[in-house]
Amino acid sequence: MSRTPLRPSGLLIAVLIVTALGSCDGGCDRGTLDRNGGGGMGMIVGAGGAAGAQGAAGNSGANSGSAGGGARGGAGGLRCSDSTCTSEGYLSGTLSIDADCVINDAACSECADDVDPDQLTLRCDDAPVGANPSTVKIAATDQEIGLLWVTPGTPPNLAATLTFARLSPDLQVLSSTPIEGEELLNTVGASKDFGVAPSPSGWIVVGWGARDVFVHAIDASGVDRGRMSAGAWGGSLIEGPLLVPRPDGLPLVAWVSAVSPVAPAAMHVAAITNDGPFVTSGTELTREDWRRPHGLAFAGDAFFAAIVAGSAANPGQIRVQRIETDGTPTIVADALAKVNATSVAPVACGDSLCLVYHAPFPNTNGESGSNFLQQKIDGTGAGVGNIGILSYDSAHNYGWAIPLPLGRDIVTVLGGSTDDDLGVVRLSASLSPDLPVTLDTTITRWPRQAHYVPAIAARGPDLLVAWGPAPKDRIRIARITFPPPR
Known about the structure:
- The chain is mainly beta.
- It has no helices and 33 strands.
- It starts with 91 loop residues before the first strand and ends in a 5-residue tail after the last strand.
């Protein structure tokens, strides 16, 4: 299927399963706690009840609902017998309702089950590790999948734990390695990050704790070969640490910290070398405020950091800094001078660097609107060639985009939308209109998915997406395969 990436005519949306269930004509009792609001959700019928200790009765739907039993009232609009997995915020599956009109969504799935095979194929499975994590990260080689997760402790005495597992391509456990000797804080996983990436001799794991930013080298059989320190994170840790993968090489360690909650945040990078292995001391990049939207990637022969730095003439000015493989920051250049961006992420496109960014751009009707866009840049930061449109805000109001190279293409995962959809777009790295593309395709949806950023990785022709604990208190992995070029 060949379509131009420059003017996609619309969005490809997965077909949803809708099945009428049950014989309850009044309101359903969901019976579970609302993790984000606290307390039960009340009856699902009529208009949503007012917030409070007890939800107000719904009164404008098909039937009047009784008072809600929790932090808010009914979700509104459906009789119990009309409830489905899709009305509960999922994409597929079969919902059940017991004799007491209690909804059971255990068989509902956050994954689409009817995507267009000309666009992609999708398979979602539980990870075979039995974890209920607070943080999940994923990486891959052609032969294996690396999975890293944090299991929260119970305050005030039990600390959080960090575990790495090697999985086969069909998700069988090859080895499981607890990362020991670290003083992980009880806040670990709540707002900070961890990372995993392949290395020539196995895997690299990075994290943070009470002492410092730490790095562990895991060999090809899953044995932890030792700990290295990238230095104290100091002050206030804003983001990270994370790993920027490098094909057939060692990844870069990066984290953002500030001396105080109101001071400008600094980006620190550290290289991992083969002799030891050893990690260099963290080096600061340009004195931007790295709380602003930014991203990192390896492209060609170096790492790159991109940030919406802003300038006097353009509040959305993108700035790109080159980082050598030994961790030394070098060239800084403003990119795409006329683009007023609100977010940016660099990504390799062949031997060059592309930027995925959110900015105004004319839509198909010639009207100005904001969209996620993709363009190649040269060594001076100037745009090269076509501009690819990944999504239109008028159709999907996505909040973030994560791109990565996949063969000769760039695949971008988009999320943070008000409708809780997670979408995938594939464009050719060259942005040639003659090459096949995958238009914005919804792959997952669950209630409040917009508040969660999944982990992604590429393995051969497959895109891997991992998330947890929401919505099912376990780690889930989606494997997405795109059709080969025709």
